[in-house]
Records
---
Amino acid sequence: MKITVLRLGHRFIRDKRISTHIGLVARALGADKLILDAPDDDVKRSVWKVVENWGGEFEICFTDDWKGYIKDFGGERIHLTMYGININEVLDDIKASKKDKLIIIGGEKVPPGVYSLVDRNIAIGNQPHSEVAALAVFLDRLFEGKELNKKFEGKKMIVPKSRGKKVLNER
Ligand code: SAM
């Protein structure tokens, strides 16, 4: 099962950091690909640098037709929104389907058409918070925490320690 994250509403000046964090969370928590709805090379470079150093197969690309991307996606399309059905009510159904998944997250304002284009509108609780948090919780619930043990083969690797820091470089 492949997981693609579609980030809508990216603004060049204000959202570089948050969209980069979406890419980092997506990669670290088991997604395979991030699609941005604006061609921001700074975000792509920042995420790519992490992939180069720390490994994994993660891809990042752009679309200028997010509606077409959602319509044509050959799997389950899940929009994360505080207005949706609480994840606790539908998680078992989502986990039961092994179809590829497109996870859609918004920004300041979500285009109204999104709600009817998708298969599910899912809330990570029905309170407003953040696209980064919503994505992180969704992926962790989907993978039941097992994504945190995923092995990444990169130039750098952390040797986990209870105190201090140890990183193996240029492996
Ligand atoms: N009022 C906006 C809306 O339409 O949901 C909130 C925008 S919020 C700043 C940006 C994004 O964070 C939303 O588009 C959604 O993807 C995600 N988000 C925020 N709270 C959420 C929640 N409780 N459940 C799921 N996603 C959430």
Note: The chain has six helices and eight strands.
---
Amino acid sequence: MGYFEGKTGLILGVANDRSIAWAVAQEIMAQGGACGFSHLPDRPDDEKQKNRRRVTKCTDGQPLAKFVLPLDVQRDEDIARFMEHAGREFGKIDFLLHSIAFADRDDLTRDTIEASRSGFKMAMEISAYSLLAVARAARPLLREEASILTMTYFGGEKCVPGYNVMGVCKAALDACVRYLTYELGPSRIRVNAVSAGPLKTLAGSAAGVGDMLSLYEKVAPLGRNVTHEEVGRAGAFLLSPLASGITGEILHVDAGYNVMGSPGRLLNLLRPQA
Ligand code: NDP
């Protein structure tokens, strides 16, 4: 019997089969959990429903994928409609995955000091505030001992040049995790984050993951990058009852990169050979 047998929950942030949310969902469903999925709403004139189809391409044929519905986290009415449907489908839920971030490319690629006011607000709203908004809307559905998980990155803890405005968003997101942890603790609801090493995804490519992959390979103690499956399993673990004593945690799944205080073995490559 899988460790998600009989459990139900929501997966927000699948764009395609390379999405971290999909890696987490695959592990949950393999362990018997049933999931409801979101997709970014399609424009009314988009008859092909491109956004919806990107997600249903993953979920079609998965018996434990119970629904796929539109949800733009910038719109409270979308969030409310999505949660209402989840309530009708599942009654109560055991887990909620928030795997969502966005910043305008111009703001992502500029130095942080040059971030536009409107771009900063939008990036913060979608990438940090949205965790509070979806947690609040899901609250009546969350069972005692339910678990919430978000996806963060090391660039919120330390300056990672190139991550720019998204680093500021991740610092805010990490703080949201801590405050939610305290506030939902009396309901025995846990809140955690996985801080993943770089992975090739749509959002990852926009945030300059290419250079980071070769850096991590040289600097991380394990001497390699992490895989989607490793991040998916760690995320599923934190969403499951196996992690019942863990809340407020930022779990680094990054081959150990975050413990390094120097470039480590990369220095050997930089030293002139004798
Ligand atoms: P994806 O692009 O696959 O996932 C990002 C998701 O956010 C997409 O499904 C996207 O929808 C969704 N999204 C964006 N704006 C909105 C919105 N307004 N409302 C609802 N959904 C929205 O990339 P990842 O899987 O890499 O990203 C998932 C999370 O993991 C992000 O928080 C990211 O910062 C984090 N992360 C990623 C790392 C990496 O290297 N890839 C490393 C560490 C953390 P759509 O595509 O339809 O616009």
Note: The domain at 8-267 is CATH 3.40.50.720 (Rossmann fold).
